[in-house]
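re: ur question from yesterday

yeah so i grabbed the chain u mentioned. its 558 aa long if i counted rite. heres the sequnce exactly as i have it in my notes:
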Amino acid sequence: MKSKHEDTVRLIPLGGLEEVGRNMAYIEYKDEIVIIDMGIQFPEEATPGVDFIIPNIESLIPKRENIRAVVLTHGHFDHVGAIPYLMGKLGNPRIYTTKLTKALIEKRQEDFVNAPKLKIEVINVWDKVKVGDHIELEFFGVYHTVPDTVGVVVKTPAANIAHYADFRIEYDAKGNAQDLDVFERVSKLDIHTFMVDSTNAEEEGRTVSEKIVEQNLEELFKAAKGRVILSTFSTMLTRIAEIIKICERLGRKVIINGRSMKEAIQIARNLGYMKVKKETIVGVEDMKKLKDNQIMIITTGAQGQENAGLSRIVNGEHKHITIKPGDTMIFSSSVIPGNERSVQNLKDNLTRQGAIVHTSKVIDIHSSGHAPADDLTMTIKLTKPKFVVPVHGYYFMRSANGQNAVKAGVPAENIRLMDNGQVAILSKDKFEITKETVPANYVMVDGLGVGDVGEIVLRDRRILAQEGMVVVITTIDRRTGKLLKNPDIISRGFIYLKENQDLLNEVRKKIRTLVGKIPRKQSPDIDYLKNIFRDQIGQFLYNKTFRRPMVLPVIIEI
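ran it thru and got these C-alpha coordinates back, copy pasting raw so excuse formatting
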Protein backbone atom coordinates (compact mmCIF):
# COMPACT_ATOMS: atom_id res chain seq x y z
CA MET A 1 0.00 0.00 0.00
CA LYS A 2 1.35 3.40 -0.90
CA SER A 3 1.21 6.22 1.59
CA LYS A 4 -1.38 8.93 1.07
CA HIS A 5 1.48 11.43 1.10
CA GLU A 6 3.65 9.56 -1.38
CA ASP A 7 4.43 11.60 -4.49
CA THR A 8 3.12 9.87 -7.61
CA VAL A 9 2.92 10.35 -11.37
CA ARG A 10 0.46 8.67 -13.72
CA LEU A 11 1.48 7.03 -17.02
CA ILE A 12 -1.28 6.22 -19.54
CA PRO A 13 -0.57 4.75 -23.01
CA LEU A 14 -3.38 5.37 -25.53
CA GLY A 15 -1.85 3.49 -28.45
CA GLY A 16 1.22 1.69 -29.75
CA LEU A 17 1.23 -1.07 -27.12
CA GLU A 18 -0.95 -3.61 -28.92
CA GLU A 19 -0.11 -2.77 -32.53
CA VAL A 20 2.54 -1.22 -34.76
CA GLY A 21 1.48 2.41 -35.06
CA ARG A 22 -1.02 4.73 -33.33
CA ASN A 23 1.73 5.74 -30.90
CA MET A 24 0.53 8.04 -28.12
CA ALA A 25 0.90 8.21 -24.34
CA TYR A 26 0.51 10.83 -21.66
CA ILE A 27 2.18 11.52 -18.34
CA GLU A 28 0.23 13.27 -15.60
CA TYR A 29 1.62 14.89 -12.45
CA LYS A 30 -0.87 16.76 -10.25
CA ASP A 31 -2.70 19.07 -12.70
CA GLU A 32 -0.02 18.99 -15.43
CA ILE A 33 -0.08 16.68 -18.47
CA VAL A 34 2.55 15.99 -21.12
CA ILE A 35 1.58 14.03 -24.24
CA ILE A 36 4.21 12.08 -26.18
CA ASP A 37 3.41 11.61 -29.89
CA MET A 38 0.06 11.44 -31.67
CA GLY A 39 0.25 8.89 -34.47
CA ILE A 40 -1.96 6.89 -36.81
CA GLN A 41 -2.21 3.16 -37.44
CA PHE A 42 -2.76 1.81 -40.93
CA PRO A 43 -5.87 -0.35 -41.46
CA GLU A 44 -5.90 -4.11 -40.96
CA GLU A 45 -7.87 -6.96 -42.51
CA ALA A 46 -10.33 -6.56 -39.62
CA THR A 47 -10.99 -2.90 -40.54
CA PRO A 48 -12.10 -3.04 -44.21
CA GLY A 49 -12.59 0.27 -45.98
CA VAL A 50 -11.00 2.31 -43.18
CA ASP A 51 -8.36 4.90 -44.18
CA PHE A 52 -6.52 4.69 -40.86
CA ILE A 53 -6.97 4.47 -37.10
CA ILE A 54 -6.22 7.19 -34.53
CA PRO A 55 -5.92 7.19 -30.72
CA ASN A 56 -8.97 7.59 -28.48
CA ILE A 57 -8.58 10.84 -26.50
CA GLU A 58 -11.83 10.60 -24.52
CA SER A 59 -9.93 10.57 -21.20
CA LEU A 60 -7.96 13.70 -22.12
CA ILE A 61 -10.79 15.94 -23.31
CA PRO A 62 -12.17 16.77 -19.81
CA LYS A 63 -8.61 17.61 -18.71
CA ARG A 64 -7.46 19.45 -21.81
CA GLU A 65 -6.78 22.65 -19.87
CA ASN A 66 -4.13 20.71 -17.94
CA ILE A 67 -2.15 19.78 -21.06
CA ARG A 68 1.14 21.65 -20.84
CA ALA A 69 2.95 20.14 -23.81
CA VAL A 70 2.74 17.77 -26.76
CA VAL A 71 6.14 16.26 -27.55
CA LEU A 72 6.59 14.97 -31.11
CA THR A 73 9.66 12.77 -31.34
CA HIS A 74 9.95 12.61 -35.16
CA GLY A 75 8.08 13.08 -38.41
CA HIS A 76 6.79 9.60 -39.25
CA PHE A 77 3.02 9.29 -39.56
CA ASP A 78 2.79 6.59 -36.89
CA HIS A 79 3.93 9.30 -34.47
CA VAL A 80 2.45 12.53 -35.88
CA GLY A 81 -0.31 11.50 -38.32
CA ALA A 82 -3.23 12.11 -35.93
CA ILE A 83 -2.30 15.75 -35.23
CA PRO A 84 -4.88 17.29 -37.63
CA TYR A 85 -7.71 15.23 -36.13
CA LEU A 86 -6.97 15.59 -32.43
CA MET A 87 -5.29 18.92 -31.68
CA GLY A 88 -8.46 21.00 -31.97
CA LYS A 89 -10.35 18.67 -29.62
CA LEU A 90 -7.51 18.99 -27.09
CA GLY A 91 -7.58 22.80 -27.10
CA ASN A 92 -4.57 23.13 -29.44
CA PRO A 93 -1.84 22.87 -26.76
CA ARG A 94 1.75 23.88 -27.45
CA ILE A 95 3.89 21.41 -29.41
CA TYR A 96 7.60 20.88 -28.75
CA THR A 97 9.56 19.32 -31.59
CA THR A 98 12.53 19.72 -33.91
CA LYS A 99 12.78 21.95 -36.96
CA LEU A 100 12.25 19.23 -39.58
CA THR A 101 9.30 17.62 -37.77
CA LYS A 102 7.73 21.07 -37.42
CA ALA A 103 7.99 21.66 -41.16
CA LEU A 104 6.56 18.22 -42.03
CA ILE A 105 3.48 18.54 -39.81
CA GLU A 106 2.83 22.13 -40.86
CA LYS A 107 2.89 21.08 -44.52
CA ARG A 108 0.36 18.32 -43.85
CA GLN A 109 -1.79 20.69 -41.81
CA GLU A 110 -2.37 22.73 -44.98
CA ASP A 111 -4.65 19.94 -46.23
CA PHE A 112 -6.96 20.45 -43.24
CA VAL A 113 -8.47 23.89 -43.68
CA ASN A 114 -10.61 23.68 -40.54
CA ALA A 115 -7.80 22.52 -38.26
CA PRO A 116 -6.31 25.11 -35.90
CA LYS A 117 -3.00 26.85 -36.61
CA LEU A 118 -0.49 24.87 -34.61
CA LYS A 119 1.55 26.47 -31.82
CA ILE A 120 4.99 24.93 -32.20
CA GLU A 121 8.16 25.64 -30.25
CA VAL A 122 11.32 24.33 -31.95
CA ILE A 123 13.72 22.52 -29.63
CA ASN A 124 17.30 21.39 -30.07
CA VAL A 125 19.29 18.50 -28.66
CA TRP A 126 19.90 18.83 -24.90
CA ASP A 127 17.44 21.68 -24.53
CA LYS A 128 15.68 21.81 -21.16
CA VAL A 129 12.15 23.20 -21.17
CA LYS A 130 10.02 23.89 -18.09
CA VAL A 131 6.42 23.25 -19.17
CA GLY A 132 4.66 23.79 -15.86
CA ASP A 133 5.30 24.35 -12.19
CA HIS A 134 6.48 20.78 -11.76
CA ILE A 135 7.42 19.18 -15.11
CA GLU A 136 10.62 19.74 -17.08
CA LEU A 137 11.51 18.20 -20.44
CA GLU A 138 15.05 17.40 -21.53
CA PHE A 139 15.65 16.42 -25.16
CA PHE A 140 18.42 14.35 -26.71
CA GLY A 141 19.15 13.12 -30.22
CA VAL A 142 18.80 9.52 -31.42
CA TYR A 143 19.44 7.85 -34.77
CA HIS A 144 16.45 6.89 -36.90
CA THR A 145 15.59 6.88 -40.62
CA VAL A 146 14.38 10.48 -40.56
CA PRO A 147 16.67 13.31 -39.40
CA ASP A 148 15.93 15.33 -36.28
CA THR A 149 14.56 12.41 -34.25
CA VAL A 150 14.69 13.07 -30.52
CA GLY A 151 14.13 11.23 -27.29
CA VAL A 152 12.86 13.00 -24.20
CA VAL A 153 13.21 12.69 -20.45
CA VAL A 154 10.05 13.87 -18.67
CA LYS A 155 11.21 15.00 -15.24
CA THR A 156 8.69 15.13 -12.41
CA PRO A 157 9.22 15.32 -8.62
CA ALA A 158 7.94 11.73 -8.37
CA ALA A 159 9.86 10.02 -11.19
CA ASN A 160 11.87 10.70 -14.34
CA ILE A 161 10.58 8.91 -17.44
CA ALA A 162 12.74 8.41 -20.54
CA HIS A 163 11.17 7.88 -23.96
CA TYR A 164 13.63 7.18 -26.79
CA ALA A 165 11.11 7.38 -29.65
CA ASP A 166 11.87 5.02 -32.54
CA PHE A 167 15.64 4.62 -32.51
CA ARG A 168 18.56 2.52 -33.61
CA ILE A 169 22.27 2.36 -32.89
CA GLU A 170 24.37 3.65 -35.76
CA TYR A 171 27.56 1.77 -36.67
CA ASP A 172 30.39 2.80 -38.92
CA ALA A 173 31.60 0.53 -41.74
CA LYS A 174 34.02 -1.19 -39.33
CA GLY A 175 31.24 -2.06 -36.90
CA ASN A 176 31.95 0.55 -34.22
CA ALA A 177 28.89 1.90 -32.40
CA GLN A 178 28.47 5.65 -32.64
CA ASP A 179 27.48 8.25 -30.02
CA LEU A 180 26.85 5.90 -27.10
CA ASP A 181 27.74 8.80 -24.80
CA VAL A 182 24.16 10.06 -25.36
CA PHE A 183 22.74 7.10 -23.44
CA GLU A 184 25.38 7.38 -20.74
CA ARG A 185 24.43 11.04 -20.27
CA VAL A 186 20.74 10.11 -20.04
CA SER A 187 21.57 7.48 -17.41
CA LYS A 188 22.86 10.25 -15.12
CA LEU A 189 19.36 11.76 -15.04
CA ASP A 190 18.19 9.06 -12.59
CA ILE A 191 15.77 7.29 -14.93
CA HIS A 192 12.89 5.68 -13.07
CA THR A 193 11.09 4.27 -16.13
CA PHE A 194 12.40 3.63 -19.64
CA MET A 195 9.75 3.42 -22.40
CA VAL A 196 11.69 1.49 -25.04
CA ASP A 197 10.95 0.74 -28.72
CA SER A 198 10.09 -2.95 -29.28
CA THR A 199 9.42 -3.16 -33.03
CA ASN A 200 12.56 -5.24 -33.71
CA ALA A 201 12.93 -6.77 -30.23
CA GLU A 202 12.70 -10.31 -31.63
CA GLU A 203 15.41 -9.74 -34.24
CA GLU A 204 18.77 -11.09 -33.12
CA GLY A 205 22.02 -9.21 -33.52
CA ARG A 206 22.88 -5.59 -34.18
CA THR A 207 21.72 -2.94 -36.61
CA VAL A 208 23.19 -3.21 -40.11
CA SER A 209 25.43 -0.20 -40.72
CA GLU A 210 23.85 2.36 -43.03
CA LYS A 211 27.27 2.60 -44.69
CA ILE A 212 27.04 -1.06 -45.71
CA VAL A 213 23.52 -0.49 -47.05
CA GLU A 214 24.79 2.43 -49.12
CA GLN A 215 27.66 0.35 -50.51
CA ASN A 216 25.32 -2.49 -51.49
CA LEU A 217 22.85 -0.11 -53.11
CA GLU A 218 25.65 1.48 -55.12
CA GLU A 219 26.76 -1.95 -56.37
CA LEU A 220 23.19 -2.74 -57.47
CA PHE A 221 22.91 0.61 -59.24
CA LYS A 222 26.20 -0.01 -61.07
CA ALA A 223 25.12 -3.50 -62.15
CA ALA A 224 21.75 -2.35 -63.47
CA LYS A 225 21.76 -2.13 -67.27
CA GLY A 226 18.44 -0.32 -67.48
CA ARG A 227 16.26 1.80 -65.25
CA VAL A 228 16.38 1.48 -61.47
CA ILE A 229 13.12 1.86 -59.53
CA LEU A 230 13.56 2.06 -55.77
CA SER A 231 10.69 2.13 -53.31
CA THR A 232 10.88 3.27 -49.70
CA PHE A 233 8.95 5.35 -47.16
CA SER A 234 8.37 8.99 -48.10
CA THR A 235 9.99 10.31 -44.91
CA MET A 236 13.00 7.96 -44.89
CA LEU A 237 14.97 11.07 -45.73
CA THR A 238 18.40 9.97 -44.52
CA ARG A 239 18.34 6.99 -46.92
CA ILE A 240 16.87 9.01 -49.79
CA ALA A 241 19.60 11.66 -49.41
CA GLU A 242 22.33 9.00 -49.72
CA ILE A 243 20.62 7.39 -52.73
CA ILE A 244 20.58 10.74 -54.50
CA LYS A 245 24.30 11.22 -53.74
CA ILE A 246 25.06 7.81 -55.25
CA CYS A 247 23.05 8.73 -58.37
CA GLU A 248 25.06 11.94 -58.72
CA ARG A 249 28.29 9.91 -58.64
CA LEU A 250 26.98 7.42 -61.21
CA GLY A 251 25.40 9.96 -63.55
CA ARG A 252 21.78 8.89 -63.05
CA LYS A 253 19.01 11.45 -63.01
CA VAL A 254 16.42 11.10 -60.24
CA ILE A 255 12.66 11.14 -60.72
CA ILE A 256 10.55 11.37 -57.56
CA ASN A 257 7.17 9.66 -57.73
CA GLY A 258 4.62 10.29 -55.00
CA ARG A 259 3.30 13.57 -53.62
CA SER A 260 4.23 12.89 -49.99
CA MET A 261 7.81 12.04 -50.94
CA LYS A 262 8.16 15.12 -53.16
CA GLU A 263 6.96 17.35 -50.33
CA ALA A 264 9.21 15.71 -47.72
CA ILE A 265 12.30 16.00 -49.96
CA GLN A 266 11.56 19.64 -50.75
CA ILE A 267 11.20 20.45 -47.04
CA ALA A 268 14.49 18.66 -46.27
CA ARG A 269 16.25 20.58 -49.04
CA ASN A 270 14.82 23.92 -47.89
CA LEU A 271 16.05 23.28 -44.33
CA GLY A 272 19.49 22.12 -45.42
CA TYR A 273 19.13 18.46 -44.43
CA MET A 274 19.60 17.33 -48.02
CA LYS A 275 22.16 18.72 -50.47
CA VAL A 276 21.17 18.05 -54.09
CA LYS A 277 22.68 19.44 -57.28
CA LYS A 278 20.23 21.52 -59.25
CA GLU A 279 20.24 19.23 -62.30
CA THR A 280 19.95 15.90 -60.41
CA ILE A 281 16.20 15.73 -59.83
CA VAL A 282 14.16 15.97 -63.04
CA GLY A 283 10.47 15.83 -63.85
CA VAL A 284 8.85 12.59 -64.93
CA GLU A 285 8.00 14.15 -68.30
CA ASP A 286 11.78 14.49 -68.98
CA MET A 287 12.28 10.73 -68.72
CA LYS A 288 11.79 10.18 -72.44
CA LYS A 289 14.87 12.36 -73.13
CA LEU A 290 17.10 10.01 -71.11
CA LYS A 291 18.56 6.58 -71.76
CA ASP A 292 17.28 3.85 -69.45
CA ASN A 293 20.68 3.47 -67.75
CA GLN A 294 20.52 7.17 -66.80
CA ILE A 295 17.25 6.89 -64.89
CA MET A 296 16.56 6.36 -61.17
CA ILE A 297 12.92 6.46 -60.05
CA ILE A 298 12.36 6.77 -56.29
CA THR A 299 8.76 6.07 -55.39
CA THR A 300 6.38 5.65 -52.51
CA GLY A 301 4.32 2.48 -52.09
CA ALA A 302 6.81 -0.04 -50.70
CA GLN A 303 4.01 -1.49 -48.53
CA GLY A 304 1.74 -2.28 -51.48
CA GLN A 305 -0.75 0.49 -50.68
CA GLU A 306 -3.48 0.58 -53.35
CA ASN A 307 -3.22 4.24 -54.33
CA ALA A 308 0.49 4.77 -53.71
CA GLY A 309 2.99 5.50 -56.47
CA LEU A 310 4.42 2.01 -56.98
CA SER A 311 1.03 0.26 -57.18
CA ARG A 312 -0.10 2.74 -59.82
CA ILE A 313 3.03 2.00 -61.86
CA VAL A 314 2.65 -1.78 -61.57
CA ASN A 315 -1.08 -1.70 -62.37
CA GLY A 316 -0.55 0.42 -65.48
CA GLU A 317 -2.41 3.40 -64.03
CA HIS A 318 0.53 5.83 -64.02
CA LYS A 319 0.43 8.42 -66.79
CA HIS A 320 4.16 8.34 -67.57
CA ILE A 321 5.77 5.26 -65.97
CA THR A 322 5.21 1.58 -66.76
CA ILE A 323 7.34 -1.45 -65.93
CA LYS A 324 9.76 -2.57 -68.66
CA PRO A 325 11.49 -5.95 -68.92
CA GLY A 326 14.97 -5.47 -67.45
CA ASP A 327 13.99 -2.78 -64.94
CA THR A 328 15.79 -3.23 -61.61
CA MET A 329 13.27 -2.97 -58.76
CA ILE A 330 14.65 -2.42 -55.25
CA PHE A 331 12.61 -2.53 -52.04
CA SER A 332 14.70 -0.51 -49.59
CA SER A 333 12.38 -0.83 -46.59
CA SER A 334 11.06 -3.45 -44.22
CA VAL A 335 7.51 -4.77 -44.45
CA ILE A 336 5.14 -3.44 -41.80
CA PRO A 337 3.43 -6.39 -40.05
CA GLY A 338 0.08 -6.98 -41.73
CA ASN A 339 1.25 -5.83 -45.18
CA GLU A 340 3.02 -9.06 -46.15
CA ARG A 341 0.38 -10.22 -48.64
CA SER A 342 0.15 -6.83 -50.39
CA VAL A 343 3.92 -6.65 -50.80
CA GLN A 344 4.05 -10.26 -52.02
CA ASN A 345 1.45 -9.50 -54.71
CA LEU A 346 3.40 -6.42 -55.72
CA LYS A 347 6.64 -8.38 -56.13
CA ASP A 348 4.78 -11.09 -58.04
CA ASN A 349 3.33 -8.60 -60.52
CA LEU A 350 6.67 -6.84 -60.95
CA THR A 351 8.40 -10.11 -61.75
CA ARG A 352 5.67 -11.14 -64.22
CA GLN A 353 6.28 -7.88 -66.09
CA GLY A 354 9.99 -8.61 -66.39
CA ALA A 355 11.47 -6.58 -63.55
CA ILE A 356 14.48 -7.86 -61.57
CA VAL A 357 13.39 -7.58 -57.93
CA HIS A 358 15.80 -7.11 -54.99
CA THR A 359 14.82 -7.13 -51.32
CA SER A 360 16.74 -6.95 -48.05
CA LYS A 361 16.21 -10.71 -47.54
CA VAL A 362 18.88 -11.38 -50.15
CA ILE A 363 21.27 -8.48 -49.65
CA ASP A 364 21.55 -5.72 -47.03
CA ILE A 365 19.77 -2.91 -48.87
CA HIS A 366 17.76 -1.80 -45.86
CA SER A 367 18.77 -0.97 -42.34
CA SER A 368 15.82 -0.72 -40.01
CA GLY A 369 15.20 2.40 -37.96
CA HIS A 370 14.39 0.15 -35.01
CA ALA A 371 17.11 -1.38 -32.84
CA PRO A 372 17.28 -5.22 -32.74
CA ALA A 373 17.78 -7.35 -29.63
CA ASP A 374 21.52 -6.92 -28.97
CA ASP A 375 21.34 -3.15 -29.42
CA LEU A 376 18.26 -2.91 -27.20
CA THR A 377 20.03 -4.87 -24.46
CA MET A 378 23.05 -2.58 -24.71
CA THR A 379 20.91 0.56 -24.64
CA ILE A 380 18.94 -0.56 -21.57
CA LYS A 381 22.20 -1.43 -19.81
CA LEU A 382 23.61 2.01 -20.60
CA THR A 383 20.44 3.83 -19.50
CA LYS A 384 20.23 2.05 -16.10
CA PRO A 385 16.49 2.46 -15.45
CA LYS A 386 14.69 1.06 -12.39
CA PHE A 387 11.72 -0.07 -14.50
CA VAL A 388 11.29 -0.87 -18.20
CA VAL A 389 8.05 -0.47 -20.20
CA PRO A 390 8.43 -1.96 -23.68
CA VAL A 391 6.38 0.08 -26.20
CA HIS A 392 5.81 0.22 -29.97
CA GLY A 393 4.67 -3.26 -30.85
CA TYR A 394 2.42 -6.27 -30.41
CA TYR A 395 2.49 -8.10 -27.10
CA PHE A 396 4.92 -10.77 -28.35
CA MET A 397 7.36 -8.05 -29.45
CA ARG A 398 7.13 -6.27 -26.13
CA SER A 399 7.49 -9.52 -24.22
CA ALA A 400 10.67 -10.27 -26.17
CA ASN A 401 11.93 -6.81 -25.26
CA GLY A 402 11.26 -7.55 -21.62
CA GLN A 403 13.69 -10.46 -21.98
CA ASN A 404 16.23 -8.09 -23.54
CA ALA A 405 15.89 -5.89 -20.46
CA VAL A 406 16.47 -8.88 -18.15
CA LYS A 407 19.67 -9.65 -20.09
CA ALA A 408 20.67 -6.04 -19.47
CA GLY A 409 20.39 -6.58 -15.72
CA VAL A 410 16.92 -5.23 -15.01
CA PRO A 411 15.12 -7.51 -12.48
CA ALA A 412 12.32 -9.50 -14.16
CA GLU A 413 9.83 -8.15 -11.61
CA ASN A 414 10.62 -4.61 -12.82
CA ILE A 415 9.49 -5.24 -16.41
CA ARG A 416 6.01 -3.81 -17.00
CA LEU A 417 4.01 -5.07 -19.98
CA MET A 418 1.18 -2.55 -20.12
CA ASP A 419 -1.74 -2.49 -22.54
CA ASN A 420 -3.37 0.51 -24.19
CA GLY A 421 -5.68 2.31 -21.77
CA GLN A 422 -4.14 0.96 -18.58
CA VAL A 423 -3.16 3.44 -15.88
CA ALA A 424 0.16 3.08 -14.05
CA ILE A 425 1.09 4.88 -10.84
CA LEU A 426 4.80 5.64 -10.42
CA SER A 427 6.44 6.66 -7.18
CA LYS A 428 10.05 6.74 -5.98
CA ASP A 429 10.73 2.99 -6.02
CA LYS A 430 7.42 1.63 -7.28
CA PHE A 431 5.57 1.05 -10.52
CA GLU A 432 2.00 -0.17 -10.09
CA ILE A 433 -0.34 -1.03 -12.97
CA THR A 434 -3.70 -0.22 -11.42
CA LYS A 435 -7.13 -1.65 -12.17
CA GLU A 436 -8.18 1.74 -13.56
CA THR A 437 -8.46 1.99 -17.34
CA VAL A 438 -9.33 4.74 -19.82
CA PRO A 439 -10.94 4.32 -23.28
CA ALA A 440 -8.32 3.24 -25.83
CA ASN A 441 -10.44 1.48 -28.44
CA TYR A 442 -9.97 2.18 -32.14
CA VAL A 443 -11.21 5.48 -33.56
CA MET A 444 -11.55 5.00 -37.32
CA VAL A 445 -11.03 7.66 -39.98
CA ASP A 446 -13.01 6.83 -43.11
CA GLY A 447 -13.21 9.56 -45.73
CA LEU A 448 -14.44 12.70 -44.00
CA GLY A 449 -15.82 10.74 -41.06
CA VAL A 450 -13.84 10.52 -37.81
CA GLY A 451 -15.11 8.02 -35.27
CA ASP A 452 -18.44 7.36 -37.01
CA VAL A 453 -17.34 3.91 -38.18
CA GLY A 454 -17.74 1.72 -35.11
CA GLU A 455 -17.69 -1.98 -34.37
CA ILE A 456 -21.21 -2.55 -35.74
CA VAL A 457 -20.31 -0.97 -39.09
CA LEU A 458 -17.06 -2.95 -39.25
CA ARG A 459 -18.94 -6.14 -38.43
CA ASP A 460 -21.32 -5.46 -41.31
CA ARG A 461 -18.41 -4.81 -43.67
CA ARG A 462 -16.73 -8.05 -42.64
CA ILE A 463 -19.97 -10.02 -43.21
CA LEU A 464 -20.41 -8.42 -46.63
CA ALA A 465 -16.82 -9.24 -47.53
CA GLN A 466 -17.00 -12.83 -46.29
CA GLU A 467 -20.59 -13.94 -46.97
CA GLY A 468 -22.17 -11.37 -49.29
CA MET A 469 -25.70 -10.01 -49.11
CA VAL A 470 -29.25 -10.87 -50.15
CA VAL A 471 -31.91 -8.18 -50.64
CA VAL A 472 -35.50 -9.41 -50.34
CA ILE A 473 -38.04 -6.98 -51.86
CA THR A 474 -41.66 -7.69 -50.90
CA THR A 475 -44.74 -5.69 -51.98
CA ILE A 476 -47.84 -6.00 -49.75
CA ASP A 477 -51.26 -4.42 -49.33
CA ARG A 478 -50.98 -1.91 -46.46
CA ARG A 479 -54.57 -2.67 -45.28
CA THR A 480 -54.69 -6.45 -45.50
CA GLY A 481 -51.03 -7.51 -45.50
CA LYS A 482 -51.68 -9.55 -48.64
CA LEU A 483 -48.74 -10.23 -50.97
CA LEU A 484 -49.33 -8.27 -54.19
CA LYS A 485 -46.53 -9.65 -56.41
CA ASN A 486 -43.88 -12.30 -56.47
CA PRO A 487 -40.96 -11.27 -54.17
CA ASP A 488 -37.82 -9.90 -55.91
CA ILE A 489 -34.45 -11.17 -54.72
CA ILE A 490 -31.09 -9.49 -55.35
CA SER A 491 -27.82 -11.17 -54.41
CA ARG A 492 -24.30 -9.71 -54.30
CA GLY A 493 -21.33 -11.78 -53.23
CA PHE A 494 -23.51 -14.71 -52.10
CA ILE A 495 -24.71 -16.75 -55.10
CA TYR A 496 -24.99 -16.27 -58.84
CA LEU A 497 -28.75 -15.97 -59.28
CA LYS A 498 -29.03 -17.41 -62.80
CA GLU A 499 -27.46 -20.68 -61.65
CA ASN A 500 -29.50 -21.02 -58.46
CA GLN A 501 -33.13 -20.68 -59.56
CA ASP A 502 -34.29 -23.59 -57.42
CA LEU A 503 -32.93 -21.93 -54.26
CA LEU A 504 -34.54 -18.61 -55.23
CA ASN A 505 -37.91 -20.27 -55.71
CA GLU A 506 -37.60 -21.87 -52.27
CA VAL A 507 -36.81 -18.46 -50.72
CA ARG A 508 -39.86 -16.93 -52.44
CA LYS A 509 -42.01 -19.80 -51.14
CA LYS A 510 -40.65 -19.16 -47.63
CA ILE A 511 -41.52 -15.45 -47.92
CA ARG A 512 -45.07 -16.25 -49.08
CA THR A 513 -45.47 -18.56 -46.09
CA LEU A 514 -44.30 -15.86 -43.67
CA VAL A 515 -46.58 -13.20 -45.19
CA GLY A 516 -49.47 -15.68 -45.23
CA LYS A 517 -49.31 -15.91 -41.44
CA ILE A 518 -50.31 -12.23 -41.11
CA PRO A 519 -53.94 -12.10 -39.85
CA ARG A 520 -56.18 -10.82 -42.65
CA LYS A 521 -57.88 -7.43 -42.32
CA GLN A 522 -55.05 -6.29 -40.07
CA SER A 523 -52.39 -3.72 -40.96
CA PRO A 524 -49.01 -5.46 -40.82
CA ASP A 525 -46.30 -4.35 -38.38
CA ILE A 526 -43.55 -3.58 -40.89
CA ASP A 527 -40.65 -3.56 -38.41
CA TYR A 528 -41.76 -6.89 -36.97
CA LEU A 529 -42.10 -8.34 -40.45
CA LYS A 530 -38.59 -7.17 -41.41
CA ASN A 531 -37.12 -8.83 -38.32
CA ILE A 532 -38.97 -12.09 -39.13
CA PHE A 533 -37.65 -12.00 -42.72
CA ARG A 534 -34.12 -11.24 -41.55
CA ASP A 535 -34.03 -14.04 -38.98
CA GLN A 536 -35.93 -16.80 -40.76
CA ILE A 537 -34.65 -16.20 -44.30
CA GLY A 538 -31.13 -15.94 -42.89
CA GLN A 539 -31.52 -19.26 -41.06
CA PHE A 540 -33.12 -20.86 -44.11
CA LEU A 541 -30.19 -19.82 -46.32
CA TYR A 542 -27.69 -21.09 -43.75
CA ASN A 543 -29.45 -24.47 -43.61
CA LYS A 544 -29.26 -24.72 -47.41
CA THR A 545 -25.73 -23.34 -48.03
CA PHE A 546 -23.89 -23.20 -44.67
CA ARG A 547 -23.27 -19.51 -45.38
CA ARG A 548 -24.67 -16.50 -43.56
CA PRO A 549 -25.15 -13.61 -45.99
CA MET A 550 -26.45 -10.30 -44.74
CA VAL A 551 -30.23 -10.33 -45.36
CA LEU A 552 -31.72 -6.90 -46.10
CA PRO A 553 -35.54 -6.96 -46.18
CA VAL A 554 -37.25 -4.20 -48.19
CA ILE A 555 -41.05 -4.04 -47.74
CA ILE A 556 -43.12 -1.82 -50.04
CA GLU A 557 -46.64 -0.99 -48.86
CA ILE A 558 -49.30 -0.16 -51.43
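noticed a couple things. The chain has a mean pLDDT of 85. also The first strand starts at residue 9 and ends at 15.
anyway ttyl
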